[in-house]
Amino acid sequence: MPITLNTSDADFDAGFTRMLSMKREDSADVNTAVAAIIDDVRARGDQALCELTARFDRLELTPEALRFTPDEIEAEIARVSDEDRAALTMAAERIRAYHARQMPEDASWTDPEGATLGWRWTPVSAAGLYVPGGLASYPSSVLMNAIPARVAGVERLVICVPTPDGVVNPLVLLAAKLAGVEEIYRIGGAQAIAALAHGTRTIAPVDKITGPGNAYVAAAKRQVFGKVGIDMIAGPSEVLIIAEGAQNPDWIALDLLAQAEHDADAQSILITTDPTLAHAVAGAVDRILPTLPRAEIAGASWRDYGTLIIARDLDEAARLSNRIAPEHLELVVDDPEALALKCVHAGAIFLGAHTPEAVGDYVSGPNHVLPTARSARFSSGLSVLDFLKRTTIARLTPGALAAIGPAAVRLAGAEGLQAHGASVQARLELLNERSGG
Amino acid sequence: MPITLNTSDADFDAGFTRMLSMKREDSADVNTAVAAIIDDVRARGDQALCELTARFDRLELTPEALRFTPDEIEAEIARVSDEDRAALTMAAERIRAYHARQMPEDASWTDPEGATLGWRWTPVSAAGLYVPGGLASYPSSVLMNAIPARVAGVERLVICVPTPDGVVNPLVLLAAKLAGVEEIYRIGGAQAIAALAHGTRTIAPVDKITGPGNAYVAAAKRQVFGKVGIDMIAGPSEVLIIAEGAQNPDWIALDLLAQAEHDADAQSILITTDPTLAHAVAGAVDRILPTLPRAEIAGASWRDYGTLIIARDLDEAARLSNRIAPEHLELVVDDPEALALKCVHAGAIFLGAHTPEAVGDYVSGPNHVLPTARSARFSSGLSVLDFLKRTTIARLTPGALAAIGPAAVRLAGAEGLQAHGASVQARLELLNERSGG
C-alpha cells in the first residue's frame, strides 16, 4: 500500500513532512575499510589493484592485463546486435547534440576606468569515469558521463569498470567507443577510485572522477575529494508525477513503476487533482506490477515509499513539488509549460503525456545524472560545466590602477593587511611621480 | 630562506615535486566535537545556540537577541568613516558589475524529430553566508559572497558572524547593507553552520552555505553537505608570479609578501627567467619584511613555503604553472596575454605590472574566493553559478516519441529495465493504433 495523503486533511502537513524526511538509504559505514584500500593502492600500486581484484572480482590479473587491449574491446563490441548498436548510436548522437549547446562562452571587456576584465573556460586535463559492473552496468550511464567530458574538451578520458569473474557488458565497451574513450581498466570498487585519484605505475592519475557506484565507491569518492574533483554522490532515484484527471492511468502507473524498478529504495510519487485518477493509477500499478521481471524490487519500492497525494489544484501541486525538489518531474497536464514555470526546484522536467521519464534516461538528450534526495534545491544535473573550470582575468592600465587602486589601499588598511596596501601604493607613487614630472 | 630551484639543475624535478606536495595545513581532527555541536543545535535549537555562544564567544544572549536589529546595524554602520564607506561602495559596485555578466541564459529549441529541449536556471531560495569574527572578519569577503548571491536572485540571504565579547566589525555590517542583506545573526562556529543547515525556532534553514571559516566551520560545512549545498573548503592562500628580468623587484616582493601576510601557511612563489631578478626580489623581501605590522606571519610563510624558481624561458614557466595550478597567478611580463593563453590551470590571472593581486582582493571586480591547493585543476572561483541550479526540460510530440522512443525501448531491454521499456511501448502502441486506424 502506498502512502496516501490528501491536502484537505487536517493532518496532511504532518504526513507530508514525514514522507519528505523518510530515510531511504542504509548507509553502511564503510569508511574504515575504504580508507585501508586507498592506503593500500597508494602504497603498493598495481600490485594492490591485482590482489584486490582477485579478492573482490574473482579475477586473476597481472599489471599488464589491467587495461583492455584494443583487440579485446573490438572482440566484445562485435557481439553487440545491430539493433542495440543503432539504438546506442542514436542515443550518443542526441546526447552529444544537447550537451554541445551547454558550452559556455569566454568573456572579455574593458570598463570605463580602463580595466580589462573577463574569464576563460578550460577543460580539466584528465577525467576518470567509474562504471559499475554486473547488473547495474548501464551503457547509457557511460554515454551520459563520457560525452559531456568529450564535449568539454577533456583530453584524457579513462573508464574503470569491474568485470566480476571476467565478464563485461559489451554494450558498455561500445558506449565507451561511441564516446571516444579508449583507456579502459577492468578494475572496480574503492581500489579503482584510489587508482584514478592517486595513480599507479600503470594508471596515470586524473583530475576529476564521475560516475555512479555502490557504497564503497561513494565513500572512496568522498575520501579522495579535494585531491581530485568529484561529481555529486547520488542517492536513490525518485520521480514525481503531477497529473490531471483526464490522463491515461496505465501510462502513469508504468512511469511510477519504471522509477520503482531501479531500486527498492527508489521513490515514486503521484500528485493529482483527481481522486478518481489516483484510484485508477493505484489499481493499474497493482495490475501491472506482478507482470514485471523486476516485480520484487519495484514492489518493495512502491510498498515502502510509493506515495499518492490528492491536491486541491495545480498551484498547490507545484508548491508541494517545490518542497519535494524531485530528481525527475513529469507534468502530465493540459498546459505543462505553464505549470513548469511554477516548479522551480527539480533536476529534470518532462512535459506532457508523450514525454515519459524513460526517454530521458536514454535518448531525449539531457543528462540522466541528476540531483537526488531534495538536492535539486541547490544543485544541478551533470553537464559540460562539470568538466570545465573558469579562470578569471584582469588587466589594469596605469590609469585604471590610479582610478581604483586607492580604494584597494583603503580597504587593505581597514582589514589590517599592510602589504596588500603597500603593493598597490608603491605602484601609485611611481605613477604620481611620473604624472607630476 | 625561501626554497630556491633552478630548472637546469639535475635534481630540479625532485625538488619541485617535493615543493608541490608540501602539506601546508594542520588539519586538527575536530569532527567529533563538531558532530556533537550539530546534534546539540538540532536537538535544543536556540537554547543551544545561546549556550554555545556564551561558552565560545563570551557573550550572553537570549534567543530574541540572536539577530541584529535594524537599529543596532545602523548604529554600528554610523561609525564607519566616509573614506572607508566610499571605498567599500566602489568595491561593491565593481563586484556587482562583474558578476552581473555571469548570469547564464536559459535555452529552448526544437529538434528535427519534434523534441523541444532546453534548460532553465533558477536561484536557490535561501543562502547563508558565514563571516568569521575577530581578526579575519573581512568586509571584502562579505561582498564577494553576498553580491553573487544577490545577482543570482537568491530571495533570502542570511549572514552569521560571531561577535566575541560582543564586538563586531562595523565594516562587515556596512558590506552586508551594501549587498542588501538584512538578516544577520551574531553567532559563529559549527553552531552557526548547524543553525543555517537545520534551522531553529529563530533561524529558518537555508539551502546553500558559503563563506570562509576556521577548522570547526570547515568541518561543520563538510558534515552538513548533502542536507544543504556548500561552496568549496578553502585551504591556505597562494600566489605564483611569473616575471621577466626588466620588472620592478620591489613591486614583486610586495606582491609576494601580500600573500604571505595572510597566514603562516600561505605560499608565495616566483618563477623568473632572470636569476638577477630573483636575487633582487629576495633582497627586497628581506628589506621590506621587517617593516610590516604582520612581519611575524609573513616571515613564517616566506621562510617555510616561499619559493624562487629560475626557468629557462616563459614556456617552461607556463608548464610549471600548470603543474602548480595556482589560486592567484600574476604574469609580470612584456606580453602577458600571450603567456596567459598557455596557463590553463589557475583560479585568477593578473596581467601586467599594474595589476597587483591585491586589487583583485578588493576592487577589480572578479571574485576573490578561489580554488586553493592545486584544485584549480578541476574547480573555479565563487560565481553567480554557485547560487543557481539548472533544470533540464524536454517535451516530445507524439511524432518525436515515435521517432526516438523505439531506441529507448531497445536500450531499456538491454539494461534489463522492463518497466522503462513498457512505459514507452504503451504510448507507441496507442500511436500505432491511431495511425493504423
Principal-axis shape of chain A equals globular
Mean pLDDT of chain A: 95
CATH architecture of the largest domain in chain A: 3-Layer(aba) Sandwich
Low-pLDDT sequence parts of chain A? none
Q: Order of strands side by side in the largest beta sheet of chain A? A: 1-11-10-9-12-13
Q: Approximately how much helix is present in the residues of chain A? A: 40-55%
Any idea what the radius of gyration of chain A is?
26 Å
Biggest interface, CB < 8 A: A-B, 122 and 122 residues
Major sheet attributes of chain A: 6 strands, parallel
- Strand composition percent of chain A: 15-25%
Structural class, from helix and strand content of chain A? alpha/beta
Q: What's the number of structural domains of chain A?
A: 3
* Strand segment tally of chain A: 14
| CATH topology assignment of the largest domain in chain A | Rossmann fold
Name of the CATH superfamily of the largest domain in chain A: Nitrogenase molybdenum iron protein domain
Written overview of the protein:
2 copies of one chain form a homodimer. With 437 residues, chain A is α/β, with parallel strands linked by helices. Helices cover 46% and strands 16% of the residues of chain A. Chain A is built from 17 helices and 14 strands. In chain A, helix 2 (31-44) crosses helix 3. The interface between A and B is large, with 122 and 122 residues. Strand 13 of chain A pairs parallel with strand 14 (388-396) of chain B, so a sheet runs across the interface.
